[in-house]
TrEMBL record, chains A, B:
GO terms for molecular function: alcohol dehydrogenase (NAD+) activity; hydroxyacid-oxoacid transhydrogenase activity; metal ion binding. The keyword Zinc does not apply. The keyword Transit peptide applies. It comes from the Eukaryota. Belongs to the iron-containing alcohol dehydrogenase family. Hydroxyacid-oxoacid transhydrogenase subfamily. Gene3D superfamilies: 3.40.50.1970, Dehydroquinate synthase-like - alpha domain. Residues 33-192 form the Alcohol dehydrogenase iron-type/glycerol dehydrogenase GldA domain. This is Hydroxyacid-oxoacid transhydrogenase, mitochondrial. Its main location: mitochondrion.
Length: 434, 434
């Protein structure tokens, strides 16, 4: 699967499937037309300080100037956003009375823009109203939001396809989020050219997010085993468990990761590989946005939230940071060893897709085989050797477990029931990987 | 992939991907809730005479009675509809001032309901306004339609996922249609239980439609080679050529057809096989609804439209009929022999998925290998031996070619350019298959 440099996939919310243009358009053209089609009069462009100087944002600005449409730029998005940084963006959106939002960036930017759009459309709501329970009130979203065009510049979060916005809730030092189909972007513009500027470690960490989206959604609790069963389809949660539709996307994304990720990380000029990882990110996003994720993600939130001094190579930020994809993948060997007994066939299939030699492998080896395959994959990609290497020790485990407990929204999609002791052991087993 | 009898997939237009409920709901429950969520006050239920006596329609009627919502039933849909039968349904819809439409049936019912909904929402439009050019004017649809819930009872057309409504245009004795995202159903309720009542030949012919949707969309002209390139995304046609997203669905549907179709045809009680074919129909629908089909479909329209005396086994109709799926599949060996040189890898991959022995097969054999594989597949499923067996002779070829010419909407997605002579030869090669 090879794209020309200028091929752009647009992802429309109102269709069953994505539309792929046959236009060798660049971002200027696409955003311009789409803004006009949406009848935009007053646009909010959100991005971060770093991106605001780079080509994708410049292209959108150029496009906006040409249309003569009014716009304001908010470039103060925090990488790995917090409730404080969300609120600042929300205030900007409330004051602007915008009729269309455009988010240019990675998951942090797109998620922040989703939240800004949501609360600007519900000016009387309290911030915790729509935040996932038990941290927030998890209220349903009833009013219509403004259109949001998402232009992803990393190949990881799949945020352009999902109804989820994640942030660090500082009072509890834990990540949580807002999850509702209502905040899903109206349109995603997926242009591989934008990912060519990703530094090597950003490509690696965002790729790990794709890998775990695919693996977790493919092994998530099956949709027909999830409880409680809502009495009305409208009350269904965003994450519904693995199902015949999400399976197609999760498995396909995993194949693409297996084929392209190492090439994409090592060679930023490898357009085929970077394009494919960008699409893999979209595809895994449709999979997990429908099925959900489970323990790697649930446990990752306190890993990023409790960061002490770890500074992330390749990221232009001034604060300590365990990048999201890294915090997710570090527990993956332990997690899939733990979940394998519940659906060994899927774990074996995943290991095979990732290149494991399956001769003489038995059903009961599923966990060990997938874990070893992941260890090799991470080692080849020069990943830090476990939680120990990003600043954690055994003493931190109680805090990490405590930060995982509120992540029920995702952890209850784990195919295997688990206690706090199980979580402790999973964190402990992840202190060192190799 | 196995579903319990009562598992129901609901397909929502407003999401990226389908939602699959974890509810062991039956159709009554689902339609009831969804009608309430849509605020229905006055429902139009469309079906055909035969189905109106069967369980799926009874379940919906029972559900409607319980809600106390007003409704009217139109059960006069014609199997393989015509402009006349469309117009009759449109008149019913115009007179009823309905706020929600429910279509329970195969492609004929769902397509008729799409047309009725469309023209009832555009009461001043002339019938040909929205019909595909060159037969109609192909005008864009600008006004919003009423919600349409589609409940497919066959596993073939995928009409619940597409923005296409096909009918016989009697003045030209050719099939044509209306194609616009605007007429796509709001919600599809895909319950395998409904397909258990399909007679063996209906299961076979609708399965062939799925097979050809998958094969044609997978081999359609690639999206980045389609011309002309529209200047605005809103002007893009419904059928965009094969692309990385449709490919996922087309290939996956083909795998399911290969695995389940023969079982589903032979044993109506094989719930796993019939469920899987029902889902394969949905999946192929997303694939071709996005990529398009080409020659098998383009050539099928005059094959059904010019029918003389052939009576279709298993169909409760009083008029001569070459069922849609049969009219599509009869030319498939000839068509894929013809298209193979343009993308031999895809033809070889399709043959392999359908079970061909690929040892010692060369690239230049792609067409012959796929054609032979299809012949074996059709023979095993006891398909009539070519166009000759459904009442055509060489003398009919000029009329069949003439009826194919107006099918530009699909035939221009053929990966290989073709003349009228080419079409003649394809029809001739399809007179006898084995």
């Amino acid at each position: 699967m090879c794209f020309s440099a200028a091929a752009t996939c647009t992802v429309r919310k109102t269709d069953y499937a994505f539309e792929v243009t046959n236009q060798t358009v660049n971002i200027k053209f696409s955003v311009l037309q789409d803004l006009q089609n949406l009848g935009a009069q007053n646009v909010c462009l959100m991005t971060d300080k770093n991106l605001s100087r780079l080509a994708p944002v410049k292209a959108v600005l150029d496009s906006l100037s040409k249309t003569g449409v009014r716009y304001k730029v908010y470039d103060n998005v925090r990488v790995e956003p917090t409730d404080t940084s969300f609120k600042e963006a929300i205030l900007f959106a409330k004051n602007g009375s915008f009729d269309v939002f455009v988010a240019v960036g990675g998951g942090s930017v797109i998620d922040t823009c989703k939240a800004a759009n949501l609360y600007a459309s519900h000016p009387d709501a309290d911030f915790l109203d729509f935040v996932n329970a038990p941290i927030g009130k998890g209220k349903p979203i009833t009013r219509a939001l403004k259109p949001l065009i998402a232009v992803p510049t990393t190949a990881g979060t799949g945020s352009e396809t999902t109804g989820v916005a994640i942030f660090d809730f500082e009072p509890l030092k834990a990540k949580t989020g807002i999850a509702s189909r209502a905040i899903r972007p109206t349109l995603g513009i997926v242009d591989p050219v934008h990912t060519l500027s990703m530094p090597e470690r950003v490509a690696a960490n965002s790729g790990f997010d794709v890998l775990c989206h695919a693996l977790e959604s493919y092994t998530a609790l099956p949709y027909n085993q999830r409880t409680p069963c809502p009495h009305d389809p409208i009350a269904r949660p965003a994450y519904q468990g693995s199902n015949p539709i999400s399976d197609v996307w999760s498995r396909h994304a995993l194949h693409m990761v297996a084929k392209y990720m190492k090439r994409a990380v090592r060679d930023p000029e490898d357009l085929e590989a970077r394009s494919s990882m960008h699409l893999a990110s979209v595809f895994a996003g449709i999979g997990f946005g429908n099925a959900g994720v489970h323990l790697c993600h649930g446990m990752s939130y306190p890993i990023s939230g409790n960061v002490k001094t770890h500074s992330a190579k390749g990221y232009s930020v001034e604060h300590p940071l365990v990048p999201h994809g890294l915090s997710v993948v570090l527990t993956s060997p332990a997690v899939f060893s733990f979940t394998a007994p519940m659906c060994p066939e899927r774990h074996l299939e995943a290991a095979e897709i990732l290149g494991a030699d399956m001769r003489q492998v038995k059903r009961q080896d599923a966990g060990a085989v997938l874990a070893d395959t992941l260890r090799h994959f991470l080692f080849d990609l020069q990943v830090e050797d476990g939680l120990g290497a990003v600043g954690y020790s055994k003493d931190d485990i109680p805090a990490l477990v405590k930060g995982t407990i509120p992540q029920e929204r995702v952890t209850r999609l784990c195919p295997r029931e688990h206690t706090e002791d199980d979580l402790s052991q999973l964190f402990e087993a992840s202190m060192k990987i190799y």
